[in-house]
Amino acid sequence: MIINNKNKLKNIFFVLLSILMGFIIAAFVLKVGGFDPFEAYKIMFLGIFSKFSYISYTIIKSTPIILTGLSVAFAFKTGLFNIGAEGQFIAGATATAVAGYFLNFPSFIQIPTILLIGALAAALWGGLAGFLKSKFNIHEVISTIMLNWIALYLQNYIVMLPGFRKPDTEASYDINASGSITILEDWKYSEVGVAFTDAHQFIGDFLRPPFNAGIFIALIAAIIIYYILNKTTLGYELKAVGFNKHAAEYGGINVRRKMITSMAISGALAGLAGSLHVMGVSKNISILATMEGYGFDGIAVALIGSNSPIGCVLSGFLFGGLKYSGAKIQSAMEAPSEVINIMIGVIVFFMAIPKLFKIISEFKLKKKDGRGE
Amino acid sequence: MLTDIALILGTTLMYSTPLIFTALGGVISEKSGVVNIGLEGMMTIGAFVGASVGYFTGNPWLALIAAGAAGMMLALLHAVASIHLAADQVISGMAINFLGPGLAIFLCRIFFDGATMTLSIPLDQKIPRPLNGIFAQNSFFDLIFNQYATVYLAFIFVIITWFILYKTRLGLRIQAVGEHPKAADSLGISVFKIRYLSVCASGFLAGIGGASMALSIVSNFRPTLVSGQGFIALAAIIFGKWKPQGATLACLLFGGAQAIVIFLGNPEIGVNISSQLLAMIPYILTILILMGLVGRTNSPAAVGIPFEKS
């Protein structure tokens, strides 16, 4: 147990070191590009923390990638690489948008209903990849890449269907207001609300962005995933499959079925991200020319979060903050915001090579020994 | 009818080319035992460097080589991580997929006044069409064979790769290192050296693959240019059972499906299907074919496993 804790601490230290390397190398890249890195980091820091509305936006940006991060991390635990969080996000968003427009129950029924429909559609989409793997031995990396594109074109097709497409636009009709999870949406524009937020600037500031309940659902999802992985038989079996497929099979675990289950749960998580995005932020779906990158970002979130649910939440906030504030260096000092992608790439890169730090620390130890003699 | 078929075949060749280059690179890398999931990132940096060197120098061949070199630089990072530092190759490859597009657009904004697109290369400075004017315009053979030089280059590379892998000592060493690195090592083959060579070659080819798009199919770089083709190439490798000829066929199949979609999407053909549904065909087809190919996949035995000398 003590060893375990020590390893955990070491791992956290290692993650922080990787993040630090990301900041250092990104600073170097900015410098070479002719920009003042300190100025850029200052703008980014203030761009997240100097206003309540900025914090609110950061949370909104982080919500979907926390969930896609959880999705990728969950599949990783079963030894599956889910590149398909992108497509599962789309499946969830599309199903929720359709259900949210055509159904209209009172809010307390509508919200869970369309959320569940989204998660279910995405679970099927993810489970399909699991099925293809267990039945036809198709590598999940291939099947999920294909399913991503199929999902994208399917969404585009559904958006354009007459009766669902908002005439003369490239988007669908908005979902019914009963399915919205934007917090105090009507109230904040009502007379009372405006009077109140004028009097309490910081609340008004916080609510100005489409702040929504999505983040709470994402956090609950993280807790549930933590519970499933660490406290249930299912979680134990899933991890056993990820750890050693053959040993798990020998131990009487139905590996094929576990793969489908894992991909379905993973898909549901990514689907939740899509559903919440529709219910809280976009309110509709529109034609996609290319992938939006939620699933792709989720891979980075999962990797930086060391595939643990808590790690995913933290790295999701980090990534969300970087993405949101990174856009600001573009407008403020014309420094390319893509430096954030470079930074993320560097962090992930260092996360891939724990051996480097080991070599360095061993080298230092050797030096010390040398002096001692 | 005949010209329709020719048109489809011609389009197939054009769209398969970037995939073939990239997939060949992936085959070489994976044969040596290093998973290269970073092909997408290497393609993107190649597309950018190709487009901008092409724009600034006016020499498409120089641009192509520069693109290969740029892909190789990224591959070198992946190589150091996965060979010397025993990295998790999937993670380090994923890092390349963030670094490649990030660097490409970052540099693009710096060299092109804040734009995320490079300026267009004039028509006569793109990759030439060697067989242009040999056949009558829009005749059957013209539609098929009047292609950019990169198309022919891709097929030449297929033959070269096949020859190297199966007919030379180097190729046998690459395979040995990928199948059983310990045995190869005990026979005096440097596992590290062979793997470095293979990963760098894969970056070079992926870079050329990306540039073959920017320098021939279109005439500039834009952020959505590569969008997922590196992953399609990755799929083609597995689909083609880790063989250069197999991967090439898989790329042709994918390109062919795309060509048919483009052909059917032409309003003059009069097929009344939504273009969105048509666009799914290549992806659905890939899954269906893979379902028919049930069985063991023949990946190199040591692929993805770092080699550490004991």
Low-pLDDT stretches of chain A: none
User: What fold name stands as the CATH topology of chain A?
Assistant: ABC transporter involved in vitamin B12 uptake, BtuC
The SS-based structural class of chain A is mainly alpha
Total domain units of chain A:
1
Strand content of chain B: under 5%
Which chain pair has the greatest contact? A-B, 49 and 52 residues
Quote the distance from N terminus to C terminus of chain A.
35 Å
Helix content of chain B: over 70%
Helical residues, percent of chain A: over 70%
Note the quaternary state here. heterodimer
Description:
The complex is a heterodimer of chains A (373) and B (310). The longest helix of chain A is centred in the first third of the chain and has 31 residues, at 2-32. Chain A has helices at 2-32, 37-49, 52-77, 85-102, 107-136, 140-159, 191-199, 201-207, 214-231, 233-243, 245-250, 255-282, 294-304, 309-333, 339-352, 354-372. By secondary structure, chain A is mainly α. The radius of gyration of chain A is 22 Å and the shape is globular. Chain A has one domain (36-334): ABC transporter involved in vitamin B12 uptake, BtuC (Orthogonal Bundle), CATH 1.10.3470. Chain A starts with a helix and ends with a helix. Chain B is mainly α. Chain B has a single domain, classed as ABC transporter involved in vitamin B12 uptake, BtuC. Chain B has twelve helices and no strands. Chain B has helices spanning 2-31, 39-57, 60-84, 89-111, 140-145, 149-167, 169-179, 181-186, 191-217, 229-239, 244-265, 275-292. The termini of chain B are far apart. Classes of the chains: A mainly alpha (373), B mainly alpha (310). At the A-B interface, helix 6, helix 13, helix 15 and helix 16 of A face helix 3, helix 4, helix 10 and helix 12 of B.
